[in-house]
Amino acid sequence: MDKTVEFSLINDEELEIRKIVLQVYEALKEKGYNPINQIVGYILSEDPTYITTHNNARNLIRRVDRDTLLQNLVKFYIAD
């Protein structure tokens, strides 16, 4: 019983959301957009045209509920 058990506060859904946001960020960056401004525009408006179709980014971001995305971003900043 000398094994260490790892405890993680991040669940699978949160990891998937993080992966998607990072992929979308990179796709926007590759196309020359300001990724932060574009993602914020998408979150505020829910208009998918803020996100490029490059590397399937638009379809990826639409797989994540916008409210869930916003909750995860806020949780990241207020987590102790």
Strand content: under 5%
Ranges with pLDDT <50 over ≥5 residues? none
Provide the structure class.
Answer: mainly alpha
Query: What's the alpha carbon Rg, rounded to whole Å?
Result: 15 Å
What would the principal axes of the Cα set say about the shape? Answer: globular
Terminal residue distance:
30 Å
What is the H/E string? HHHH
Feature tags:
80 residues, mainly alpha
Summarize the structure.
By secondary structure, the protein is mostly helical.
How would you describe this structure to a colleague?
With 80 residues, the protein is mainly alpha-helical. The protein contains four helices and no strands. Helix 1 crosses helix 2. The longest helix has 19 residues, at 12-30. The chain is globular.
Question: Helix and strand layout, with pairings?
Answer:
Blueprint lengths: L11 H19 L4 H11 L11 H6 L3 H13 L2
